[in-house]
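Appendix B. One record, verbatim.
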Amino acid sequence: MANLYVGTSGLQTSQNALNTTAHNMSNVDTEGYTRQQVSQGTRAYQTLERKYEQISWKQIGTGVNYNNCKQVRSDFLDLSFRRETGRAAFYDVSLKALEEIEDQLQEMNGSEFADSLNNLWVSVQEMAKDPCSAVTQSSFITRANEFLTRAKSVYDGLVAYQENMDSTVKGMCDTINKYGDRIRELNEEIVYIESGKQESANDLRDERNLLLDQLSEYGKIEYNEDVFGNVTVLFEGSTFVTSDHVNHLAIDTTLESSVGYATPYWEYAAKTVDNRDGSKTVVSIEGAHVYDLTQNISTVTNTDIGKLRSILLARGDHNATYHDIQEDQEFYNSNIAQSVIMNVQAEFDQMVHHIMTSINDIMEQAESNPAFLDKSMGDAKDFTLFICANEEDKLTYDINKNMPAGTVLTGFTIKNSQINPKLIQEPTLFTFRTIDGNEDNTTTTLLKEAFTKEQYTLNPNVTTRNSFVTYYNSLVSQVANSGDVYNSIKEAQEQTVSSVEAAREQILGVSSDEELEFMIMFQNAYNASSRYINVVSEMLEHLVTTLGS
């Protein structure tokens, strides 16, 4: 009679294996699904006789056992895939930022700013031919106004893109928190199901692994599974998910950024004060930052992983000006150079600053300045081409100990400059005619030389010197070259991710052809067990019938 149990075990095991195979087949196209594999073994043997002088004891088998249903994964490939996916996301964001900057510089759909700069240079050349002509003087003022207007337009476009990138930071942090909460919930469900050591929560594990894949796009993660089935996660080196808790990311817009940009920080590490209503107010996030954005970007140290870091780096923490380049090289290298938007803002503002400052200095010292011709008209500075629209321009962030936030700034920036209203109302007020009635060719010659003198570098790390005529082309070329570099890195990363993903899919992916082979095999095993039971049943019936007769 015991032989019937052998056949029954075959039926049960084959039926379970068929169910697993069918489950695999039904999830061929399910994102994140991991192929499940049946593990079979023998049941305990029944020993009939023990003779130690013989090679083996006399035993009979009791059937097949369905040991478990396990997932087929590679920890090494999972780790590689998640790391390289995060790195690909980092460079993808950086590349898109550079492409947007090219658009903002208006070099993709027409060279509007380049034209305005060239028109200003042409107007200076034309005025040098006939300085006292009302036509050339009016053209000079008009082109200067057009130049500054378009410079403001470009700069405002860069600021608008910064704000657009900033608007995505909170959504990313909310998504990261959501992933963390769900991973903790899955930990509880998996531990509850698997605590009896009888079942494996494979589908829940698939969902958890998919969340880890998705989380890796946002930042550098490290994870570990304990003996109970809990997965603990570190995000950017800090504890994120524990067995019973999730440390959430929060956003600060007032304590760190001078322009209200979002700064991610860890809620648990921020300094707070208790309010009377039971709520808490954050008073400092020092030591609670998720990222140290002054670190050098390097693949060796894995500081080039995650789209959130890339967004924060590209965006920066303020609207940069030429002060960020000229005041402190160490500050520039650690805070500005790695931000593609702030770096272009600073270099672009520096170019416009130099042009405005040079023109004003020349006009202020000119013999034909109306203040020199008529002392009653005021100061020579009153007749320069550009003036500051905001005399109380102050620094809103710390550059160094000598230039803390609140320092009163001097010098022209794009944001605080405008054309002198006196020259707008009367373009011929600056006559370019000396006190003795001659044309002021000296001043116009100096203006021409100012545009062609090669003495300006893009930033402290560049040695190539440019003139006003070539500076802008060098700036655009720098952006284009950086874009090519990032595009090459991105394409290489995409190939790396594709190769790792293909290798991973060979292990965890479901092959319909292979599963069909397993289905046929398990179906044949089921049929064989059924025939075995029939044979045993007929044998028993024959014995009973024979003995009974």
